């Protein structure tokens, strides 16, 4: 069984790392380069950087801080935010990113996923999905522009289409759980994991180690992302990893969750 990945996420706006609740009321939590170095030292498996205002502001992700991060990291990192052309994806990968994440632009022009996958391989092509539970409770709807625009698209159906187009990984964020510390959205994550044959990264609602055990077992996630629990010092990556292993080993039914310590 492949090891489950723990991935700190850094939402970047105006060159600073920020965090909010349900994509709102953003607060400054530090310098992205310094935080990246700290999380690598703590044992993060990967990092994800999202320029969260790029799409809504109609601009590209800033290349400068991607280059700065790349000089400091030895672990893989993904960059997203405003990636709308193959040329922009190329610039990010040339700047040192290992993968590019696309959300709004992929919804507006799905063939972008195919262009990136054919040029650089599906392993570099990440589809970010911001999903919100539909009002009737039947499934989830895709949001774009940093959660500001409702698309009417069914999230799971969009995930299936995106994989056919070339997406090699799904970054799945529950809009309902984002920043709430209420635990991951297990039905949402499980729906994607069961429907798709590519890795699914669960995001939104990370709490303590129990929430990670649940998303890896009940949610069937391949990786789990967290932000504020790391930014606010509630957990370090290494302490969280050890706690997850201890919890899963205690429950004999789970037989231990494979984690790189």
Q: Given the C-alpha coordinates, what overall shape results?
A: globular
- Regarding CATH, which class? Alpha Beta
> Structural class, judged by helices and strands?
alpha/beta
Element string (H = helix, E = strand)? EEEHEHEHEHHEEEHEHEHEHH
What's the number of helices?
Answer: 10
Distance linking N and C termini: 15 Å
**How many separate domains make up the residues?**
1
Walkthrough of the structure:
- The structure is a single chain.
- The chain has one domain (5-250): Aldolase class I (TIM Barrel, Alpha-Beta Barrel).
- The protein has ten helices and twelve strands.
- It is of the alpha/beta class and 261 residues long.
- The two termini are 15 Å apart.
- It has an eight-stranded parallel β-barrel, surrounded by six helices.
- Helix 1 (32-42) runs parallel beside helix 2.
- It has helices spanning 32-42, 63-72, 86-94, 104-108, 111-120, 155-165, 186-195, 209-217, 228-231, 237-250, and strands at 5-13, 16-21, 24-30, 47-51, 77-80, 99-102, 125-133, 140-144, 149-154, 169-174, 200-203, 223-226.
Output the keywords.
261 residues, alpha/beta, TIM Barrel, eight-stranded parallel barrel, 10 helices, 26% strand
